[in-house]
Amino acid sequence: MMKLCVFDFDSTLMNGETIDFFAEALGIGEQVSEITERAMAGELDFFESLQERVGLLKGLEFSKVEEISHSLPYMPGAVETIAALKARGMTVVCFSGGFRTATTYAKDILGYDADFSNALHVKDGKLTGLVGGDMMFNFSKGDMLVRLQNILGVSEEETMVCGDGANDLSMFAHAGTRVAFCAREVLKKEANIIIDKKDLTLILKEI
Fold first, then answer.
1. What are the φ and ψ backbone dihedral angles of 35, each rounded to 5 degrees?
2. Is 180 exposed, middle or buried (0-12, 13-18, 19+ CB in 10 A)?
3. How many structural domains does the chain have?
4. Spatial CA neighbour of 82 closest among 141, 6, 15, 154
């Protein structure tokens, strides 16, 4: 019986990439989304690509960051799927290489139990271009998953993970059920459930 489920946020629980929405507000959406895409495909080091993309956001008003973070489009079926998993007795957690302004706000809307993500550095009401947090590296999600499993007393076989990009690979290595959701090929190769339609409830038919 599965006891723990970890979802990625951007392009998994949320329909899009938070950082790309921020970049659009500065008129550099295309530049940032190109780096995001390469990072998610596994072509770039995640840490370096995150630093580079956040650096390009320097000067963006934090009030705008919050406004965008609080109006993101959630993935179809996200609320229903999380509710169904929790009804089965599972702890549901969100790991994101994105930002707390989005994941912490979404926590009570989507219904997951906890979120682990990164914090944008703010000074004088604007982004400084610096970032820090729980999910900065390629290995971060796997590292945090093992810690959670130890704390909760949950085995790999009792763990399900769901994501779409290369920075989800590290958590795929520690879970018995691995869902690639509208994912890049690099992740599909390691999955045992593949969903290619933007409807998270399809997962419930597979587990």
1. -65, -40
2. buried
3. 1
4. 6
Question: Tell me, what CATH number does 176's domain have?
Answer: 3.40.50.1000
pTM: 0.94
**Residue 108 appears among annotated catalytic residues:** no
- Beta-strand ranges (E) seen in the chain are 4-8, 91-99, 114-123, 126-133, 159-163, 177-181, 193-195
Q: What's the domain range around 154?
A: 4-205
Catalytic-labelled residue, pool 8, 20, 164, 168: 8
Kindly give, in sequence order, each residue whose CB lies less than 8 Å from that of residue 127, ignoring residues fewer than 6 positions away: 54, 57, 58, 59, 60, 62, 65, 120, 121
Alpha helices in 57-123 (DSSP H): 62-69, 78-87, 100-110
Count how many residues are written for the chain: 207
Residue pLDDT tens, the chain, 207 long = 899 999 999 999 999 999 999 999 999 989 998 998 888 888 889 999 999 999 999 999 999 999 999 999 999 999 999 999 999 999 999 999 999 999 999 999 999 999 999 999 999 999 999 999 999 999 999 999 999 999 999 999 999 999 999 999 999 999 999 999 999 999 999 999 999 999 999 999 999
Are the CB atoms for 204 and 175 separated by under 8 Å? no
Catalytic residue among 10, 20, 115, 164: 10
